[in-house]
Amino acid sequence: MRLDDHLPVDHKLSRMYRFGAGLMGLILVVFGILGLLDGVSFLSHAGERIAGLNTNGALSTISIVIGALLFFGMVRGGNFASTLNIVIGAAFLLSGFVNLALLDTSHNALAFKMSNVLFSFAVGVMLLFFGMYGRVSGGLPHDNPYWRSRHPQQAAREEAARAAVAARRPPARGLPQH
């Protein structure tokens, strides 16, 4: 059994999940490639500034791997992309807090600076937004597949009511034939 087997698949929402994964994946891959092209050592604690962020070889490599994983989520789409965005978003938030605690210590193996911490928080929040969009809310509309999945009996009653109204309508008149 997979983690998200019980969740409905909705193609309209899948576009948002794919867009979020692709956008964040692109940003991370570009950052990682620029960092590796700069030739900074793998575990340098000082790092180098790339696009306003500090990086070393390890952080650049991790960025490329996570970006590629997000690209895979973009290609796969659906609930997988949504769940992946949520999991990686939460990991980015956790990374921001951990690296905030490690700033200016000898344990700062990824050469994080405050700008990296803020970037980690921003990417984490964006991925969580893209992953939870249309999935987590107290006020989901009744045609939302996640609402329908959580309220199957009420959804069935509403569907039956719609079918009854449609059955009472007179048939639509066609255009006059010439």
Explain what this protein looks like in three dimensions:
It contains six helices and two strands, in the order αββααααα. The protein is mostly helical and 178 residues long. It folds into two domains: 126 residues, no CATH class; 31 residues, no CATH class. Strands 1-2 form a two-stranded antiparallel sheet. β1 and β2 form a beta hairpin. α3 packs antiparallel against α4. The radius of gyration is 23 Å and the shape is elongated. The termini are far apart. The mean pLDDT is 82.
Radius of gyration: 23 Å
Structural class: mainly alpha
Q: Unreliable stretches, pLDDT < 50, 5 or more residues?
A: none
Shape: elongated
Strand order of the largest sheet: 1-2
Mean pLDDT: 82
Overall number of structural domains: 2
Major sheet: size, sense and barrel closure?
2 strands, antiparallel
Strand content: under 5%
Number of DSSP strand runs: 2
| Order of helix and strand elements from N to C terminus | HEEHHHHH
Q: Give the helix level as a range of percent.
A: 55-70%
Number of helices: 6
Organism: Actinacidiphila alni
Keywords: Membrane, Transmembrane, Transmembrane helix
Protein name: DUF4383 domain-containing protein
Keywords:
two-stranded antiparallel sheet; 178 residues
Gist?
Helix content is 64%, strand content 3%. The chain is mainly α. It folds into 2 domains: 11-136, no CATH class; 138-168, no CATH class.
List strands and helices in order, with pairings.
Layout: H1 11-37, E1 48-50, E2 53-55, H2 57-76, H3 78-102, H4 114-132, H5 145-150, H6 152-168
Antiparallel strand pairs: 1-2
Helix pairs in contact: 1-2, 1-3, 1-4, 2-3, 3-4
